[in-house]
Amino acid sequence: MRLKTFSAKTMKEVMALVRDTMGPDAIIVSVEQARKGGSVRVTAAVEQGLLPQRPPKAPRPRPSPAISDERRPQRARSRPFDMAELKAAIAHHGFPFALGERVVELAARHDAETLAEALAAAFESLIGFAPLALEAPRPLMFIGPPVASKTVSLAKLAAEAVVNGRPVRLITTDTVKSGGAQQLEHYGTLMETEVAVVDEADALAKAVSGAAPLTLIDTCGLSPFSLDELERAVRLLKAADAEPVLVLPAGIDPLEAAEMADIFARMGARRFVATRLDGARRYGSLLTVARGGRLALAGMSRSPYVAEPLETPTPMRLARLVATLPSAKAAARIKERIS
Ligand SMILES: Nc1nc2c(ncn2[C@@H]2O[C@H](COP(=O)(O)OP(=O)(O)OP(=O)(O)O)[C@@H](O)[C@H]2O)c(=O)[nH]1
Ligand SMILES: [Mg+2]
Prior knowledge:
Elements: E1 2-8, H1 11-22, E2 27-33, E3 40-46, H2 65-71, H3 83-93, H4 97-108, H5 115-126, E4 140-143, H6 150-163, E5 169-172, H7 180-190, E6 195-197, H8 201-207, E7 215-218, H9 227-240, E8 243-249, H10 254-266, E9 271-275, H11 284-290, E10 296-300, H12 315-323, H13 328-338
Helix pairs in contact: 2-12, 4-5, 5-12, 8-9, 10-11
The structure holds guanosine-5'-triphosphate (GTP) and magnesium ion.
Residues 146-152, 174, 177, 180, 220-221, 275-276, 278-279, 301-304 line the site of guanosine-5'-triphosphate (GTP).
């Protein structure tokens, strides 16, 4: 493990330095805001074996293949659409049988030239898309299982609002996890936005009173199978008259994800943010949660960096993600570098 500290005027600049120097696998260990001068100091760590070779010139940050496809639609690695490829993608991502059959049926109705186009056409009819906006009539309460990326997703949306000069009100109810409230307070300090810490329904009702264009409420990790935890969450939701937004990481078992989504939907969740897309290669769970109008897709996260906003989901973005299968060459390169 190698540690290095970087300073710059803004979070965005310092994150670019981290990625240029330490590569995309760097992990942020700490973030500090200097009292004077307004600079941000970030300490990052990277495994020795993953350190990039020192290039003659600092390389530009390289987005994941799916993102680069999105930015350069004309140059997307499009291949002629072939039903066998679609079936291979479905098997790779572990779509439950009925979902896989439905995707094949919908994709076959379109005269698509590429796998991504065929998938996009299927997702357009199968999945709801309801992106989070920088204004919301009701407070948004980010809920979900532990370590799903609730706080980071909320902070990404808040940072985007702040960067666009939109007022945002931040509240955390995470007084359960040690350091839970401090995590959001820390992001709040960087964004120069106060964070209200409340742990009871009455206090939350007071904290959300008065109009605000965007109120974001963080919560502690919630087991969908614990009645006590669900009851606390429902009390908080009612007190704030908030919209619950489910946050779910990629790469979990599709049937487990579907069961969780059904429970959170009963609490009133109608949309979800799919997170940690960069840390998984199988997206069957996300499709299972989103299919058939179960929950609409509200945002996508593929980095832990708060400065990088949630991506707006579209049928084509989702299709490119599913169509980009891991390459054996890339896997071999990674193995070689870390051995
Ligand atoms: N690679 C990657 N890491 C992420 C992403 N989103 C969040 N993380 C990291 O995942 C970890 C958990 O994120 P949090 O936002 O703290 O998760 P949480 O759901 O609030 O966790 P609890 O409050 O403990 O339940 C942190 O280390 C984040 O930096 C993402 O999209 N990609
Ligand atoms: Mg949290």
